[in-house]
Design goal:
- By secondary structure, this protein is α+β, with helices and mostly antiparallel strands.
- It has one domain (about 5-184).
- It is built from 7 helices and 5 strands; from the N terminus they run βββαββαααααα.
- The chain has helices spanning about 40, 70-80, 85-95, 110-120, 125-140, 140-160, 165-184, and strands at about 5-10, 20-25, 30-35, 55, 65.
- It has a 5-stranded mixed sheet, with helices on one face.
- Bound molecules: zinc ion.
- The site of zinc ion has 4 residues, from helix 3 and helix 5.
Amino acid sequence: MKKYIVIKNPDFNKKENNRYAIVMNQETRNLCLMVVYQPDLFNKTNYHIATTVANLGSPSSSFCLVKMDDTYLRFFDKMPTVFEPVIMHELGHFVHRDYDESKRKKTSTQIYNERILCVMNGIVPMTEILADRFAAENVGASNLIEALRLLIAERQKISEKGSEITIKEFELRIKELERYYMEK
Ligand SMILES: [Zn+2]
């Protein structure tokens, strides 16, 4: 049974102030994640949904905020089914404490360069593999794979800076998920 559920504001797509969702741990009934679209709140940290999660408060905080950027907002509006898989992947990073400041000794440039190196070598970093497995357990592996496929198709249309790397990375993540869940 899935442990976490996403509760999205029913008016999510109607206007900017409504763009939030929460994730609840069904066992403890704790809210553990909130998704917002409020650029001002995050201007200082410059966080991006695809790469990181802002951990509010202490390193042991049980609550985090995810900022949606404009690209992802467009994706969510256009393809509502990608929302949960993407959010669960980010929650996976948070639950695994990948973004704890104390654990993170690298700069974002270093992380970005390592990511490119991994993709070039056909490797998915372990942190991404584990975040994907977390998401797969909560939304189903096939739904996650389908979301990644939709995101690839969308990225191919917009060709932003860095799109090529992202597409390659998504393809590698799909392969890894298929391998893992087919063997199971
Ligand atoms: Zn990730």
